[in-house]
Amino acid sequence: MSELKIDGATLELRCPAKLNLFLHIIGRRTDGYHLLQSAFQLIDWCDTLRLTAISENTVRRINPIPGVAPEQDLVVRAAQLLKEFCNVGHGVEIDLMKEIPMGAGLGGGSSDAASTLIGLNHLWGLQLDTKTLCQIGLKLGADVPFFLFGQNAFVEGIGEQIQALPSETSEFLVIFPNQGIATSQIFQDPQLTRDHAPITIDGFIASPKSFQSNDCQAVAVRNCPEVKLALDWIADVAPNSAPRMSGSGSSVFGVLDPSQDHAKLKNLLQNLPKGWIGRIVRGLNKNPAYNLVSSE
Known about the structure:
Elements: E1 10-28, E2 34-54, E3 59-62, H1 74-86, E4 91-97, H2 108-123, H3 130-137, H4 144-149, E5 153-157, E6 161-164, E7 171-176, H5 183-187, H6 201-206, H7 217-223, H8 225-237, E8 244-245, E9 252-255, H9 262-269, E10 277-282
Helix pairs in contact: 1-2, 7-8
C-alpha cells in the first residue's frame, strides 16, 4: 500500500479540450467497437481540477455536476479505479470547475479523467508510468489514453494506438451549438460510414489539408440540425477555415488564417444564436496537467 504524501496537500490541474482534425472510421471489431483513425489536437479551452489528499479512505466529490450520478462521473470513477489498482488506503477530495461543454465532442470528460489519474499518481506517490496509466484510462473511455499521452497525436484502433505528431500552435474558431449528441447515437446509426480507407501517419504529416473530413458528421447533421447551422456560420465568417465537426459532435471548428480579423470575429461571437457557445482558441503542444507533475 502506498504512503499518503501530505494529508491536506492540494494539486490544481488544467484539463484541456481537444479537436479531431479529421476522423475516419475504418472498420469494426467483433465486439462492436469501431476502429478509428484521427489526428488529435490539444487546445487551450480547459476545465480546472482540484485534488486534495485526505486520510479518510474515500473519494469525495465536491460540487458534483447536476444530473450526473457518482457512478457516471468520470473523475470519481478514475479515482476509484486508481485506488483499487494500487490498493490505496486513503482518499481524495475532488473539485472540478467545468468550462468545456458536455456532449460537445471536445473530450472534456476524458481530459478530466486523465488529469485525475495524472494528479493522483503524483499526490498519492504511486509512481506509475504513463503506459500503466493508459491501461487504466482505457477502461474509462477511448480518448483518455490520448490525454495521458500528453501531446498532439495520430490515434488509431479504439484509441489505444498513439503516435506523436509535430507540434502545432494554430488558432481555431470553435462553436458549440448547445445541442449535445450522444456518442452511442452516432455509432449505432446504420448509415454511419464504417469502411473509410486507412491512411498512414506519414501521409497525414505530408499533407494534412488532404484529410479534413469527419465520418460522423453526416449522421450528426441529420440528427442534429444545429450542427449544420454552426458549420454554415463558421463558413460565413471564416470562409477559408475548412469547417468540420470534432469527434462525434456537436461542436464544430475551423482553422483560422493568421490574417483573420480577430477583433471582428470576437464581436460576432458576442451575437451568436441564443444558447450557442463560441471561442477563439489556440492549439497546445502539451497537456498542461503535466506542467505541475512529473510524467515519469
